[in-house]
Amino acid sequence: MRGRPFERFTGRLAVALTAVLLLCAQASAPPEFEAGLQAYEKGDYNAAYRLLAKSAQKRHPASVYYRALILWEGKVGRLNDPTAASWFRFAAAKGHVDAQYMLGRVLLSGRGFKRDPARAREWLTKAAKAGHRRAHFQLNVLNFADSDTPGPRFAILEEAAEKGIEDAYFLVAQAYEQGRGTDVDPGEAARWYTKASAAGDPRAKLATARLLASGDVPGGDAAAGLAVLIEGAQAGDKLAMMALGDAFIAGGSALAKSVPIGLAWYERAAELGYDPAVLQLATWFTDGTHVAKDLDRAADWLRASAQAGNANSAFRLGKLYDNATGGTQAHKAAALEWYWRAARKGHGEAMRWLAYLLRGGSAGVTDRVDAYYWFARAGAAGQPTKTDIANTASSMSPEELAEAKRKLARAKAKGLMK
User: Fold this and answer.
1) Which residues, 6 or more positions from 26, have their beta carbon under 8 angstroms from its beta carbon?
2) 8-132 carries CATH number 1.25.40.10
3) Is the pLDDT of residue 23 over 50?
């Protein structure tokens, strides 16, 4: 089979892919695939989708991949994310490198399948090892976002953005705004926020407005930026409330700094039940950032959110009680209660800390069976509990260990863990 440029991602970028080599190693492609691919490359997506159907029915991976891509991009009729995602998965499992990359993107986005960053990274890594450049760039975007030492990775991240990896736009903008791995440059930050907004990132419009409102963007319209934030906040947009709060807390050459006004906007968003605002307020009152340290107020915000069912807030409230200075058994018991609530909702870290309290007995109850159970559940959720499981097992009687394993078997049967 002759070589050719493989995928056009979002209709704009043609990428020469090593999947061509994979196809060359296979038997000759069905003739309808050749015709379908030619139609795809000409932009006749309806014809391509129709022509590729027959070869896709023969389980030809490249045909399945292109039909998935056409659906994913909405080139024919309405978007059909679940079907496209399933077809990407089929082709990826057959070794199609483009499909492996796209499956990674699907799992990052949560379109079609439940969002699963760990599995996304696995598929992106497979594609990158096969020479897929966009997968390589996407992994660098993820690594930068997770890194505490972003400096050496910033150049690679910016290159990814220049290559059109849209997930990189917002991160590059943040890096320029915060000086994360590069020099602070409000103008470059605004430029990349604008690109991210044009690519559909809902955070970017408000971030651009917040940056403009500071007056620190050369040639920027500070009044227009502030107007966007105020309009959104007054209309009830909780993200706009937080962005307006951030603008007042940071201040700038065109906006007088006012922490009280900034906090008031955060509190309004929190009162409307917006959990990111709740968690940020709790962090500030816990750490004493922008406000006087006040653990009672932190606990009040977290409790309201946790009682409404937010697992992150329940876990944070548990940690607040667990780490209380001069903590008593009552504090530990309260921590155990909130850890348990979060763990029941699938919060892996809460499972682990719940197990520590159950094993240690500082909350007034010791239960090695439940400690083993929750350590195992936490491990299945990605927490580092292998040593904890072994240490707990070594202190258990055979009967206790058998009981714990029966509980785990029931949890697996109910789909509570893998």
Assistant:
1) none
2) yes
3) no
